[in-house]
Amino acid sequence: MKTDEILAAWEQDCAMDKTELGKESLRIPQLHSKYINEFYQAKTSYIKHTQDYKKLYKLKHQYYQGILSKEELDQYGWDVQALKILKVDIPVYLESDDDLQIIKVKIEMIEYKIEMLENIIKTLNNRGYLIKNAIEWSKFQHGL
Q1: What CA–CA distance (Å, rounded) separates 28 from 67?
Q2: How do residues 115-124 score in pLDDT, each as one tens digit?
Q3: Which member of 42, 75, 78, 104 has the lowest number of beta carbons within 10 Å of its beta carbon?
Q4: What is the pLDDT of residues 19-61, one digit of tens each?
Q5: Quick one: DSSP state of residue 2?
Q6: 3-state class of 4 per DSSP?
Q7: Whole-model pTM?
Q8: Which run of H or E residues covers position 47?
């Protein structure tokens, strides 16, 4: 699921029917499973993109050093590095490299998604207590 789809689903899932608190408590494991699965998918995607970034970073470092062979450059569709870049300047080129930036943005979006899912799961973990408190409050209001 995309982040906006998760937010839309959570907007519906977080609502509780105060007249059916028993049913709401039984829904907790189902909702937990739903969001734990999304969390797992996001974590595996994060690991994959992080590894892809590291591999591409190494290749781009070699590219800016000018040490890739003609075959490797052709394999990736890159032109020969025309400039002679000093080693000290390579980090500047790597930070502004378009290919690396694309993966970096994906990683940051996945990190945001993971943080959002962690917060949803924490809320679900506390939902039983919220339901119990609502029941206790109802008893108190009715003098029980």
Answers
A1: 56
A2: 999 999 999 9
A3: 75
A4: 888 899 999 999 999 999 999 999 999 999 999 999 999 999 9
A5: -
A6: helix
A7: 0.84
A8: helix 21-65
Helix (H, G, I), strand (E, B), or coil: what is residue 35?
helix
d(CA 48, CA 45): 5
Q: Could you state, in order of their start, the residue ranges of all structural domains in the chain?
A: 29-128
Task: Tell the residue number behind the tokens 């591409």, with chain if given.
Answer: 56
User: Measuring CA to CA, how many Å separate 112 from each of 3, 106, 119, 136, 140?
Assistant: 9, 10, 11, 36, 41
Tell me the C-alpha distance between 111 and 42, whole Å. Answer: 8
- The residue behind tokens 């943080």 is 115
Q: What is the largest CA-CA distance in the chain?
A: 83
Asked if 131 and 26 count as a contact pair (C-beta separation under 8 A), the reply is no
Give ∠ CA 112-126-38 in degrees, rounded to 5. 35
Closest by Cα among 86, 90, 84 to 61: 90
